[in-house]
Amino acid sequence: MLSDVSISFPNLGIEIENLHKTFSVFGIDIAYYGLIIGIGMLLAIVFCFREAKITGQVVDNYLDIALFGIIFAIVGARIYYVVFEWDRYKDNIMSVFNIRQGGLAIYGGIIGGVLAGYIVCRVKKINFWQVGDTACLGLLIGQIIGRWGNFINREAFGGDSNGLFAMRINVDDIYANVSVPNGVSYIDEAHQFIQVQPTFLYESFLNLMLFILILIFRRKKKYHGEVFLWYFCGYGVIRFFIEGMRTDQLIISGINLPASQLLSAVLVIVCGGILIANRVMLQKKQKTVFSFLKVGEWKNK
After folding, report:
1. Is residue 300 situated within a structural domain?
2. Which of the 8 DSSP states describes residue 195?
3. Residue 169 CA: distances (Å) to CA of 6, 15, 146
4. CB neighbours of 204 closer than 8 A, spacing ≥ 6?
5. Hey, is 193 helix, strand or coil?
6. Whole-model pTM above 0.85?
7. Which domain holds residue 78?
8. φ, ψ (nearest 5 deg) of residue 188
9. Is residue 298 part of a domain?
């Protein structure tokens, strides 16, 4: 029956019936969203351990970075979301701590994780930029997998679409705190379906392409930190365009601009500028921008 269909891709002939957001273990409800995020984190950590071993780094350092990074990432992801959705939480402060209903922002998680990594690197006196080159690929793995949590939650989608990958969602399955925005039409009033852009799918796929490109070209890096900059520049471009399609943007009050789109533009400009400047300096046999900042080192030093 049509009412049993939770999500479908009508132009691909795909229907998913009775897709639940949780499953029960010994009477305890576990969210698929959290499970998917957890799997993404675990695979990211395993990949970083492997890369650290291959490149002659101390694997135990990455265990410490992972432990603190996960905590900081979750806190950062929640803070980022709550700051830009404050009106939703200001009258019930305790709801800020309830993340079972979603409300985590990837950029906040990245900021928190990077901050934790920087602190651990400073304490252990290891090169932050070399760690960044290794960890950014792990971050991408987490993002590629984690976006499918949005699919299960029926969130982070775009506006109306009848394209090849158009996604049809049963409105009754959308979380109460994910409102159906203006500009998205009901395609079946009887069963309350909407048909939208699956932006989670676009971002997951584009992140996979970025991951593959970095894997191919990473050995051509000229200094520690260059791959890290590729990641931020590449993801910034991806997120800038994806964010423009989404209907659940976190808006900066006062200037009425999407926070993540603005941050993406800044990352692309800043990281792209540093990449170009460093390459020019290397051609002139000068030290990189990182060397001047005394926070990085030459790859062959």
Report:
1. no
2. E
3. 6, 10, 19
4. 143, 144, 145, 147, 148
5. strand
6. yes
7. 2-293
8. -145, 95
9. no
Cα–Cα distances (Å) from 78 to 85, 192, 255, in that order, read: 10, 30, 22
DSSP letter, residue 288: -
Q: Which residues, including other chains, have CB under 8 Å from residue 95's CB and lie 6 or more apart? A: 88, 89
Looking at residue 300, its pLDDT comes to 41
User: For residue 299, is it within any domain?
Assistant: no
Number of domains the chain is built from: 1
Q: What percent of the chain has pLDDT over 70?
A: 89
Greatest Cα pair distance, the chain, in angstroms, is 69
Question: What is the token pair recorded at 280?
Answer: 């020019």
- Cβ neighbors of 191 (< 8 A, separation 6 or more) are 2, 3, 170
Per the CB < 8 A criterion, the answer to whether 264 and 229 are in contact is no
Query: Considering the domain boundaries, does residue 15 fall inside one?
Result: yes
How many residues make up the chain in this entry?
Answer: 301
Residue 29: Cβ-neighbour burial (10 angstroms; 0-12, 13-18, 19+): exposed
How far is 111 from 75, CA to CA, in rounded Å?
10
Tokens 């062959």 label which residue?
Answer: 300
| Amino acid 187: pLDDT | 76
- State CA 128 to chain mean position distance: 21
Per residue in 158-201, pLDDT (tens digit) is: 988 999 999 999 887 776 556 676 667 777 767 778 899 999 99
Tokens of 95: 């709801």
Burial of 207 (0-12, 13-18, 19+ CB in 10 A): buried
